[in-house]
Amino acid sequence: MPVSLKWTITLLMAATVSRAQTILFLPEVAAFGGPAHNAWFGPWFSDAIIGFLVPVMIFVLWKGISPRAWGALIIYNSLGAFDYSQGLITQFFHPMPDEMASAITVYLGIGVFMVFQITAIMLLFRKTVISQFFR
After folding, report:
1. How far apart are CA 7 and CA 50, in angstroms?
2. If DSSP codes are grouped into helix, strand and coil, which group holds residue 2?
3. Stretches in the chain below the pLDDT threshold 50
4. Distances from the Cα of 76 to the Cαs of 13, 39, 41, 44, 64, in angstroms?
5. CA 7 vs CA 22, 62, 92: distances in Å
6. What is the number of H-type helices and E-type strands within the chain?
7. Three-state DSSP class for residue 103
8. What pLDDT digit, counting tens, does each position of 43-79 carry?
């Protein structure tokens, strides 16, 4: 795999590390006395887990040379994109309170990062990438 392609995938994945901060939003759900609808608990909790896994998955990208490593990267990025879609659905049905973030900020932020994750998946399916993991 060309180093430039590896760096592109790395940057796309690294850009999503900010989702780890959503662990700080968990007390903001209504069940804990916060202003956000309880529906946000799931997306925020999974965001935190996926965000904390970013460094691990970048390590797998750079050091992994097995089909399992490639599969883990596909699964990780697919779950990440799915999680972002859940955030968009949650925003549609239970908008985040304006005091936390405006609707446009939520839709734009989630949408852009979902595109990053989908782009990483598409790049992982390139023959040059696959050939590195299936030697």
Report:
1. 20
2. coil
3. none
4. 10, 23, 20, 16, 14
5. 26, 9, 34
6. 6, 0
7. helix
8. 999 999 999 999 999 999 999 889 999 999 999 999 9
